[in-house]
Write a structure and sequence with these properties.
single chain, alpha/beta, Rossmann fold, 2 domains, globular
Length: 253
């Protein structure tokens, strides 16, 4: 992050922009503005660590179907695809605009199947899934036990689950209690010193640039220097921070 953006972050950044849609409008705006396209290809947000852990122990097994809960930009499914080339990947998201974008973006991949749905009532057949991955999803859901029950319903016997949260340990603690209540053995993982993009600050820069000409010009200059579009330049200018990734995994017995 350059000195200009670093100083702006310290002096002017308002944390209320942490909920990205707040700064740009509704979630459907994010899906159609090019923001999700950018977030899908910028690497440093922990997706790699989550995907690698989710695939441990099952790389050599035949994985016919994967469910990605709260697919958002679709980065998780795109990261998993090279390792699971013949698997069906079901991207589940409750926002129609997000699903429509994914359908267009992955229209040439017949095994990439975006589906409009809610994690609390998955539109997936019983006992049909080999792997379920949820990254930074349960933080937005109050009925976590209902999500767990749905995951268990769609999993095949021997199916794997990997749930992860960036920075928010409490979500993993709460989910662990649910699994203990249901007498489901699980494993916890902690990944320290992970690099995360300052996504909320990127949203903030885009929003502020609409009324701040100096900021807009700075981002435009960065876009020219990096050879990318304005939105990507804003997110890359936002920089990154180091944090902890918390996760848990289990196998359906």
């Amino acid at each position: 992050m350059s000195n200009y953006f670093s100083e702006l972050f310290k002096k002017d950044y308002d944390p209320k922009y942490g909920k990205g849609a707040y700064s740009l409008g509704r979630t459907d705006v994010l899906a159609t503005s090019g923001v999700l396209d950018v977030l899908e290809r910028i690497p440093n947000d922990g997706t790699g660590a989550v995907s690698d852990e989710a695939l441990k122990g099952i790389r050599d097994k035949k994985i016919e179907s994967i469910v990605v809960l709260g697919s958002g930009s679709g980065k998780m499914g795109s990261y998993l695809r090279p390792y699971c080339k013949k698997s069906k990947i079901f991207d589940i998201d409750k926002n129609p605009s997000v699903i429509n974008r994914l359908k267009k973006r992955h229209s040439k991949d017949p095994r990439r199947i975006p589906i409009l749905g809610d994690a609390r009532d998955l539109p997936i057949k019983n006992r049909s899934v080999d792997l379920v991955v949820a990254y930074s999803v349960l933080r937005y859901v109050d009925e976590k036990e209902l999500v767990i029950e749905n995951i268990l319903r769609v999993l095949k016997k021997g199916g794997h689950v990997h749930i992860a949260e960036a920075r928010i340990k409490g979500v993993i603690d709460e989910t662990s209690k649910i699994l203990k209540k249901k007498k489901i053995p699980f494993t916890r993982h902690i990944y320290r010193n992970q690099s995360f993009l300052r996504v909320s600050y990127g949203y903030y820069l885009i929003h502020r640039s609409k009324t701040n000409e100096i900021l807009r010009v700075k981002i435009e200059d960065e876009a020219k220097r990096m050879g990318c579009n304005f939105i990507e330049a804003a997110f890359r200018s936002a920089g990154s921070y180091t944090g902890t990734l918390y996760s848990l995994s289990w196998i359906k017995r």
